[in-house]
Design brief:
globular, 13 helices, single chain, UDP-N-acetylmuramoyl-L-alanine:D-glutamate ligase, purine salvage, alpha/beta, nine-stranded mixed beta sheet, Ribokinase-like, five-stranded mixed beta sheet
Length: 432
């Protein structure tokens, strides 16, 4: 497991000793540090087409069009025949997140969802597997007879993006295929709010079952909100779910406003902390916020410039490390904010997946803490029941850097890890 920041390790294999056993590809709950993600498995196809192409398939320009599997297959065949396809990407907000986690950590994660039982060359399932890290354990996916989801992005000459979405069997995940032992041994469970849209589909109960297992085994639970419209349409049910089962909530500023009615991200985060332990809020060109709790006895004051917004001096304690509110005897709220890395990229090639990248960095830090605690339980790093290895401010830096990498490439997933970062003075403080 790579820790955030620079860690110098020596690897050697004495010739006098037997050759080491090759590591298992499958996750072993009693030995490995890993996270679990539950998602709707979907492949994104990007193609450049004419307006006539949209008319041919009765696709409404500029909108998200729900199509059946046969229509999606016909569209795909025509795109392939005309040579219009520019890219295939494995999609899904949680699929993106755990792929990025495995790239950053160079370690295992587990994906829960569905996968086509019979995978053929060029099928959606084929492209999904090709574009997902080999460190992602897919052995717990549920086999289905049909295709996984396919989202086709059709770009016309005027730059307008039109979407044709075929769900396939991506929502057929049954609760019986949720492995309790795998969730119980994980460092965190991460899922998204999208299954709430599908009242008649089994994936909703599967998600609730996974969250209940995590809650029962005291595994930190992480939820992403999906889209502003999803939050608006399912607000009451979503709030009830968050209050009962969620420790970490990730969102953008529009989703935060839909949930709280507050347009100021800082105020929205402050209100959401009444329900959860950590809030990760990305605010586009305004940067990102990481907010949560620590105990008053272990709070640490920042040496960065003090910031004020709707909350005065809100980042004063950002060198503190996150804790569950229930683990604090005297909990205090902690807020940290960071501007876009290097002012943001000169040219943004892709915004899809930037928030997923930020979340994967936070998950990496949470799992690093889990790993370190298992390895060195008597370390001063664990004098209090911290949830993450680094401080709010340090995690902000890490998440911000990962988001930047997504923004400057033309894909929603990392293709490689980040360069190792020099440890900051603040990290050195925590090593004392």
């Amino acid at each position: 497991m790579k820790f955030p920041g620079r860690r110098k390790l020596k690897h050697y294999f004495p010739v006098s000793q037997p050759k080491p056993i090759l590591p298992s590809i499958d996750v072993q709950p009693d030995k490995d540090t890993y996270i679990v993600g539950l998602d709707e498995t979907i492949v994104d196809v990007v193609a450049n087409v004419s307006d006539e192409f949209l008319s041919q398939f009765s696709i409404h320009k500029g909108l998200s069009n729900l199509v059946d599997t046969d229509t999606a297959s016909a569209i795909y065949r025509e795109l392939a025949a005309q040579g219009c396809i520019s890219d295939h990407f494995a999609g899904g907000t949680i699929g993106n997140t755990i792929h990025n986690y495995s790239v950053l950590a160079d370690d295992k994660s587990v994906l829960l969802g569905v996968m086509s039982a019979n995978i053929t060359l060029g099928s959606p399932a084929y492209h999904y597997i090709c574009h997902t890290s080999s460190k992602v354990d897919m052995n717990h996916l549920q086999g289905v007879s049909g295709d996984i989801g396919r989202g086709i992005t059709l770009i016309t000459p005027d730059g307008e993006r039109t979407f044709a979405i075929a769900p396939g069997d991506m929502d057929e995940l049954n609760a019986e295929h949720i492995p309790e032992n795998i969730i119980a041994g994980s460092a965190a469970l991460v899922t998204c709010a999208y299954p709430l849209r599908h009242q008649g589909k089994p994936i909703k109960q599967a998600m609730l079952t996974a969250l209940e297992h995590a809650h029962q085994h005291q595994v930190p639970t992480v939820l992403t909100l999906g889209t502003k419209h999803l939050v608006e349409e399912n607000k009451d049910e979503l709030l009830d779910l968050i209050k009962r089962h969620v420790n970490v909530l990730a969102m953008n500023e529009l989703e935060a406003e839909a949930l709280t009615g507050l347009s100021d991200p800082l105020q929205a985060a402050d209100q959401i902390l009444e329900y959860v332990d950590i809030v990760l809020l990305t605010a586009g060109p305004d940067g990102m916020y990481l907010c949560g709790y620590t105990d008053d006895t272990v709070k640490r004051e920042t040496t960065n410039p003090i910031k004020s917004g709707r909350l005065a001096d809100f980042n004063r304690w950002e060198f503190s490390r996150p804790m569950l509110r229930s683990a604090c005897q005297n909990p205090i709220k902690v807020f940290s904010h960071i501007d876009p890395y290097m002012g943001g990229p000169e040219k943004i090639r892709n915004t899809n997946g930037a928030g997923d990248g930020a979340l994967s960095a936070l998950l990496h830090d949470i799992s690093a803490n889990h790993f370190h605690k298992d390895s060195l339980p008597n370390s001063s790093k664990h004098a209090a029941p911290f949830l993450a290895y680094s401080s709010f401010a340090q995690i902000c830096k890490y998440s911000n850097r990962v988001s930047y990498e997504i923004l400057v490439q033309n894909a929603p997933r990392l293709s490689r890890g980040l360069p190792e970062r020099e440890d900051s003075l603040e990290e050195a403080y925590w090593e004392r």
